[in-house]
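For the sake of transparency, this paper describes our internal protein records without simplification. Because each token names a local backbone shape, the row as a whole describes the fold. One such record is reproduced below, unchanged from the form in which we store it.
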Amino acid sequence: MNLVFKNLYLWFNRTFLYGTIYYERLQTMVRGRYILRQTSASDFIEENLKTIFAYSLSKVSDKTDAEDLTNEIVYAILESADRIKNPDAFYGYVWKIASNTCCKFIRRKRRVSFCEINSDISDGYDFTEEIFAREDISNLRREIALLSKEYRECTVAYYYDGLSCSDISDKLNISPEMVKYYLFKTRKILKEGICMEREFGEKSFKPEPFEFHTIFSEKCNSEYCSLFARKLPGQILMSAYYAPISVRELSVELGVASVYLEDEIILLEKYNLISKVSSGKYQTKLVIFTDDYMEEFYKKAEKPAVSALAEIMKSIKGKLNEIRKINNICGKLFDNRILWAILWPVMRLGYDKMEDEYSELNVRTTLYSGASGVNYGVSGSGQREELECGTFAGYSGIDENYYASAADFGILPKNNRYFHNMDYDALKDKIYKAVSGEITPEYMILTKTEEGLLFKLLSAESLMMSELYRKFFLLACQIMHMHAPKNVYDIDRIVFQTLFFQTLGFIGYCTVKSGELSLPDFDGAAAVYIRENTVEEEDAVSQEILI
């Protein structure tokens, strides 16, 4: 095998000089075009060049290194400026580029190359050529691993397996002319790649947080559900989200040989999560809720949300005496506990009212094999820094007599996540003792009739919540249309069907900020109410809604 790579290296060495000159000229031309195109970035650099140099000098201390780092930062900004979708995020984006470039520069400066020198080598033996050759052959192996399937199969078959073009044609079921074309193109690709100092992307060692979510109206198959138990599919979708990307580019970005990416891409294509565009590159078709998107939504929605929730909670407080009269247990609960418990069904009722208005968006689309639903991705934390943990909401059957509806609003410590840590036997014991009067109740416990009375009493507040959700929906769609790539479809439907869960923690945060509710000072979920089961509900109760 070493002989094979050595032969490829010898071929490469004959064209290295001319290839290098051509590559440098091409690189200069490309950089010039970037400079001409990226006027916003050029203006930024002109205004902040001294600041960029000062930043570089603070990181590397040496003036010469600082100048080199400054040049690399400038080039990186110019190269990446056209990827910025949101003009408001421009300054934050370019300084993030500067930070990433600085990290790469420092890692490269610290990298130490060494080799073990055999003490038995004679004084007249020139081993430098062997070392350089060994390094280039290693780079050659690297570049072959990055090749896309067609090019890689032809190259390995020809140089490693020793097959003729005719044999390769038969093996791969393509014409001999196409084999020759792939080999010709491969040589050009290898020549270009081997002279680069290849830097794998940050995702190769630091994968971006990514979660895949599916809301099905029918049972989904195991392959589909387990696809994102692995990290790689999510990283592929993130890398191909904003712009089409080739398998080779993906390989560099993720630090994974192309042969291991191809099977994952086939699965993603199968389930219509990624598609091949005309350029032979791939682009994600999935809507992804990124931190940038969520932060912009939170920023613009916070003021109207705080104002609306203040009015809603004031209205609920005015009805507290009536609520306490619904049953004996309601009368024994502290104001803060009962208000948190009520906020949760008001949210549910408000969202249900909005769903009635936008009923056409509540129709699930076909995902695979006739099954319907929606799917989407979440990148990053998906929440504000003020929220201590991810939000949770759900229904859970306690036993044949009771079920619980709960939400933690993302504002409680992680050890208070209700369904994740609840001792069901202990919960049942508390329910039955509270109903019998043996202990002071901790939760609202309602019959079906009492729940109906509560919901009727909260009708006006539910309508106010519906109006707030309507504002959320219009704003969220507007922002997503600016953030998401043009190839992503069904944006309004997906935003609509995920809005409730995407805003659950945000509503908890804004309610506390309004001053109408204080953070819960009790154990368990922020909002819990328990109701008696009915026969009609048994199937629904057995299922949990988790986010």
About this structure: The chain has 23 helices and ten strands. The chain has a mean pLDDT of 76. Strands lie at 210-216, 274-276, 282-284, 288-289, 365-368, 371-379, 393-397, 402-407, 444-446, 527-532.
